Write the structure tokens for this entry.
Amino acid sequence: MENDNELIANALNGSLQAWEALVRRYEGRVYNYSLRLTGNRDDAMDLMQDVFLGVYRNLARFRGESQFISWLFRIAHNKAVDLARRRRANPVKDQALPDDPEDWPDDQGVDTGPQALAMDAESNAGLQLLLQTLSPEQRLILELKVFQSMTFDEIAMMQDISANTAKTRFYSALKKLRALMEGHHELSPDP
């Protein structure tokens, strides 16, 4: 199996097979990243396509100073920020999180890949809704740290922020999620 640098070199030399292999290698991760940031399949698919179009157009600019995946997710981050800006300019009614977890939607709009199928569909849909309550910066930090297993230093480099800022955003996002989850799981007092 070719490594990323070999695939990139071959793709730059015109190999469609190398480009397709590179896309196949990362499309699931980019799609899941996009889904967690956008909250629905259509937007995630659009974002993923936009990311790979950006990668294709800029592949010759990849200098190999970092891992390809870091560079790929930097492009994904930039595309996600652009999408968030467009949404702020043309706001759409936000989806409210129902008070009762029993009322959370089923797995519609949620990834049904192998990892997601292993999770309970209701919890997954609830998590999607909870993630949408976070700022784009907080969602991105959670995505990169939790789902992409990046270090705070890698996240900081990718986002042009300090590692302490990345940590602060991460723990702030966790605190907000914890408060939201606790608010939805409070037990009512005995009568």
Remarks:
- The chain has nine helices and no strands.
- The two ends are 64 Å apart (CA to CA).
- The first helix runs from residue 4 to 12.
